[in-house]
Design a protein that fits this description.
This protein has helices at 2-33, 58-68, and strands at residues 37-42, 51-55, 86-92, 96-97, 102-109, 113-120, 132-133, 136-142, 147-150. The protein is of the alpha+beta class. The strands form three sheets. It has a four-stranded antiparallel β-sheet, covered by helices on one side. The chain has a three-stranded mixed β-sheet with strand order 5-6-9, with no helix packed on it. A two-stranded antiparallel sheet has the order 4-7. A hairpin with a 3-residue loop joins strand 5 and strand 6. This is PrcB C-terminal.
Length: 151
């Protein structure tokens, strides 16, 4: 009987501990939602030239994925975005050797303009440098009426 009571108490405290942990995780994900958030990263976009694009409407997003999915079977799914609250930043790295290791970051922000740039991502994964890739990165961020440029 005592053993059963002890087990019930342990389960009760374990459940309370889990609730506290998940609450702090919600806070950190809310913090991340105010910054750039990676929506899609893939090594094969089919876009052979370097390209940076700001997507503010569903029609432009659909046209982008029509281009990306021309040669992909199955194609990449189009991310769901509420364009009243978010916009997308698309960076196609062009053709290169090896896997993409870059991430998009805010270089500078002023009251009128946001300048985006690239930063090398630290990875422990071993790369295959003999493979030609056309990496694409799609990030979402809160809607802004500032001019967004790429450096």
């Amino acid at each position: 009987m005592r053993l059963l009571l002890l087990i019930i108490c342990l389960f009760g405290t374990a459940c309370v501990g889990q609730k506290a942990v998940s609450g702090t995780m919600d806070d950190s994900s809310e913090q991340d939602s105010r910054n750039l958030q990676l929506v899609l990263g893939d090594n094969y976009s089919g876009v052979e030239q370097l390209e940076f694009q700001v997507v503010r409407d569903p029609k432009t997003l659909k046209n982008l994925f029509l281009q990306i999915n021309k040669t992909r079977k199955p194609g990449l799914p189009i991310p769901e975005v509420d364009f009243t609250e978010e916009l997308l930043l698309v960076y196609c790295a062009g053709t290169g050797l090896g896997e993409g290791r870059l991430k998009l970051v805010v270089i500078e922000e002023s009251p009128e303009k946001i300048t985006m740039g690239l930063k090398e991502r630290i990875t422990t994964k071993k790369e295959n440098l003999n493979v030609a890739t056309t990496p694409i990165y799609i990030y979402k961020m809160p809607v802004t009426h500032k001019e967004i440029s790429f450096q």
